[in-house]
Design goal:
This protein is of the alpha+beta class. 39% of the residues lie in helices and 17% in strands. Among the domains are: 188-219 and 227-272 and 415-470 and 496-564, Chondroitinase Ac, Chain A, domain 3 (Sandwich), CATH 2.60.220; 573-781, no CATH class. It has helices at 8-64, 66-98, 108-120, 127-149, 156-185, 188-191, 284-333, 358-368, 392-411, 495-500, 630-639, 662-674, 686-689, 747-754, 757-764, 768-781, and strands spanning 193-194, 199-205, 209-216, 231-234, 239-242, 252-259, 425-438, 444-445, 451-452, 504-509, 521-526, 531-533, 537-543, 548-553, 559-564, 573-578, 586-592, 597-603, 606-613, 627-628, 679-682, 695-701, 712-716, 721-724. It has a 9-stranded antiparallel sheet.
């Protein structure tokens, strides 16, 4: 059957019907999309309202609970401060009643009087008297250090005066040792021991310093005498030196004075860290309250900007509508006809840009009206007042990141080339005063048996004028050269070698009073800039097997051995729990550092080292088992090479470290300290990967060590603390709370809801001094930021 051919009119009718059908389908699709968009918007708005209400409820919870815990911790800090002040006053009163002739280091008048009377004495210039006075003065200076490092309620001006008096004592002590040296040198043959016919030496050792002297006695020599620059070994001190050849014909005294204390580093320009910015001195409640208020203000600003934007869009649509309705009339008056189009003509906007087609404009407008009023997402165009493309949380996060950048730049300490940054390095093992001194005039016996000593100028030691400028040669590229045969003549001495030999060669064996974890470098103290520097030190080498550092110097100045300060960071693990061995009321705290394992026992307001493992020597072992005030123990450990007490700027100089949120970290330490007699806390491998604002650790209640429960995983953020559904051996970390976990603003309130009655009773009766001492150790070690 032949298919009837459709006419042109019928084809047009079918095409019109299909077009109409397609248009109806498209309209139906648009209606469906609009309906889905409305439903989505309703759901989003419902979720936003639900989240906003949840945030409001949590904020109300924080106001009611977190404010109480922060107030409790602040009250405990204040009580501890008042107890410490009272204890210091009692110590002052005991010193006053002793009347033993020794001053109170905290009393400026007594210290200045003591110093004045000391300066009037002459008998202390003799070495034995100097040793006695050194012991007495160093005890006073140790107390002064404690006052300065822990000033309590002392004013800044008083602390400044303490430092000034301390420095005066240090200067006078060094002067007395120098004077004792001069009194020995005034009569070489009587006071020193002969090595041979022409040389004498001297050695004096005490708990605080070792003094070694060597010199040649002036004797007649034949006319062709060609002396050789000597190499002098002070084996008891661990120092040897070779005098440069240009001084071979000089008569001088070599003094090696090793003082086991360091009175230079803490007056260095880079010793003290810069204080934290005020934003970091708030408590956790104040932080959350202020951030919540800022977030609400930002929400209002964004909503206002959106309202203004909607009004503008409404005004633009109204103008477009008026313009499109008047165009046909204008065209009729001009008797101009145009072919109708399916889309409106582009219309110029106020900005000079053409408007998009109506259908696309409506779809885009529908999307731009999508307003998510929660604190996670707001998708709107950018305005000059507030960036509508970011949520309040994103804006606050950006502000916080900017503050961290400012803090890092502010805390960073810059030093000149060859100067030592004491924020990054430390000088250990005391100070070596290696000097070339002029030989003073010796006594002469006159014919009438009278002894006459002619002294030129002031009777004190005089340093030999020794200063050599050395410019190291530029490094040369290695060349492939044939080896010289043994019968070839020896090559002439190169000019740079001759220049190098004009420097003094020094060898120092590392003192065994320090644990050395890093290869040290030799540094010298410069009084003119109050800095340790390597400016006059050249050709430094280290023999690891013999533990000897060798270097040359072009100028004589006090020498120290500098090493990296935080070589034991980051930590590998840590644990804190009640101490079951020493009876109730004690806390065990251990740190597995990069090299060593150190354990502390904390009782009341004292701390002891329980054990020190993996150390490279026996240094500091005499401190094990002895209880000290925590700040004093920290200083002793740092001087012994064990610095596991990073300050707030240590992250700048430590690789691979991302510090945790400062305020949150301090708050959790206070919570842990309060719970330390009844809970067991431990390191978690998830902490490092959790990010800056999240702290992760393991926790369990510790009532009976024979029946300990399994660890739970604790997640702490600035806004909440929860036990998460995760373990240390899980394949991935989960931030989802365990079933039934409610909202808690911090660890204290979480344990108040879930701890046993026994634990709650122990927490309520916790000793204030113990809690605050534990808190001090935690805040000084900062195990969350550095593990």
């Amino acid at each position: 059957m032949v298919k009837k051919k459709l006419s042109k009119r019928e084809l047009e009718r079918i095409a019109e019907a299909e077009a109409k059908k397609k248009q109806q389908e498209e309209e139906a699709e648009r209606q469906r999309l609009r309906k889905e968009e409305k439903e989505r918007m309703k759901k989003e708005q419902a979720r936003a309202r639900e989240k906003a209400q949840k945030e409001a409820n949590e904020h109300e919870n924080r106001i009611q609970t977190l404010s109480k815990s922060c107030a409790l911790f602040n009250e405990m800090k204040e009580k501890k401060l008042q107890k410490d002040i009272k204890s210091r006053e009692e110590e002052d009163w005991i010193l006053y009643l002793k009347c033993d002739g020794k001053p109170n280091p905290g009393n400026l008048g007594e210290m200045n009087t003591y110093l004045y009377l000391w300066q009037l004495e002459n008998d202390s210039d003799y070495i034995d008297n100097t040793i006695i006075r050194c012991t007495e003065v160093l005890k006073l200076l140790d107390v002064s250090d404690n006052l300065i490092n822990n000033p309590l309620n002392a004013s800044e001006n008083l602390v400044k005066n303490w430092k000034e008096v301390r420095q005066n004592f240090r200067t006078e002590l060094q002067t007395r040792i120098d004077n004792a040296t001069f009194s020995i040198l005034r009569n070489l043959e009587q006071n020193m021991i002969s090595i041979d016919l022409s040389t004498v030496h001297y050695l004096k050792e005490c708990p605080h310093f070792i003094l070694g002297l060597w010199t040649e006695i002036i004797n007649p020599h034949p006319w062709n005498y060609e002396p050789v620059a000597p190499t002098v070994d002070f084996s008891q001190i661990g120092v040897s030196l070779q005098v440069p050849y240009q001084l071979a014909k000089e008569y001088y005294v070599i003094r090696v004075l090793w003082v086991k204390y360091n009175h230079y580093s803490d007056i260095s320009m880079t010793w003290n860290s810069k204080p934290l910015l005020p934003e970091y001195n708030r408590d956790l409640f104040t932080l959350n309250f202020e951030e919540y208020e800022q977030k609400q203000q930002l929400k209002k600003m964004i909503e206002e900007e959106l309202r203004i934007q909607r009004e503008r869009e409404k005004s633009k649509r109204k103008k477009r509508h008026t313009k499109t309705t008047t165009e046909p009339e204008v065209m009729a008056q001009n008797e101009t006809t145009t072919k109708p189009t399916t889309e409106p003509l582009p219309v110029e906007t106020e900005s000079g840009l053409k408007e998009i087609p109506e259908q696309e404009r409506k779809e885009k407008e529908s999307k731009e009206k999508t307003e998510i009023t929660d604190n996670t997402e707001v998708i709107t165009p950018v305005t000059a007042t507030v960036n509508l493309q970011r949520s309040p949380s994103e804006i606050l996060l950006e502000n916080e990141e900017n503050l961290k950048t400012i803090l890092k730049e502010y805390l960073k300490t810059e030093v000149k080339e060859k100067e030592i940054n004491m924020r990054q390095r430390i000088v250990l093992g005391g100070v070596f005063h290696i000097n070339l001194l002029e030989q003073p005039s010796q006594p002469k016996i006159l014919p009438d048996r009278t002894i006459l000593t002619i002294i030129h100028g002031e009777p004190k030691i005089r340093h030999l004028d020794y200063y050599e400028v050395y410019v190291p040669p530029p490094p040369k590229e290695e060349e492939d050269k044939p080896l010289h045969s043994t019968d070839e003549p020896e090559a002439e001495k190169k000019p740079e070698e001759d220049s190098l030999n004009r420097l003094t060669l020094i060898n120092i064996t590392l003192p065994d009073t320090v644990l050395w974890f890093d290869t040290p470098i030799a540094v010298q103290w410069r009084d003119d800039i109050n800095q340790w520097t390597t400016e006059y030190i050249y050709d430094s080498r280290f023999n690891e097997e013999k533990q000897v550092i060798t270097f040359r110097v072009g100028k004589m100045a006090p020498i120290g051995l500098s090493t990296a300060r935080f070589i034991n960071l980051p930590y590998q693990a840590w644990e804190m729990r009640p101490d079951w061995k020493g009876g109730p009321g004690g806390v065990f705290f251990s740190i597995t550092a990069a090299t060593i394992i150190i354990e502390f026992i904390i009782r009341n307001n004292k701390v002891c080292i329980n054990s020190l493992q993996n150390a490279s020597g026996n240094a500091l072992q005499d401190l094990v088992g002895l209880y000290f005030e925590p700040n004093r123990l920290i200083r002793m450990l740092q001087k012994g090479g064990v610095d596991v007490f990073p300050e707030h700027d240590a992250f700048i100089y430590t690789e691979g470290i991302t510090p945790k949120h400062w305020i949150t970290e301090n708050h959790i330490y206070q919570c842990m300290a309060l719970l330390s007699t009844t809970y067991n806390f431990s390191w978690s491998r998830w902490n490092l990967l959790a990010g800056q604002k999240k702290i992760v650790m393991q926790i369990r209640e510790f009532l009976d060590r024979k029946r300990l429960p399994n660890y739970s995983m604790l997640l702490v953020t600035p806004q909440r603390t929860i036990v998460v559904d995760c373990t240390e051996v899980s394949q991935a970390f989960s931030e989802q709370g365990i079933q039934g976990m409610e909202y808690y603003p911090d660890l204290y309130w979480l344990t108040q809801a879930h701890a046993s009655s026994t634990s709650k009773e122990k927490i309520e009766k916790a000793d204030l001094m113990l809690v605050q001492t534990v808190n001090l150790i935690l805040t000084r070690t900062r195990v969350f930021s550095f593990s």
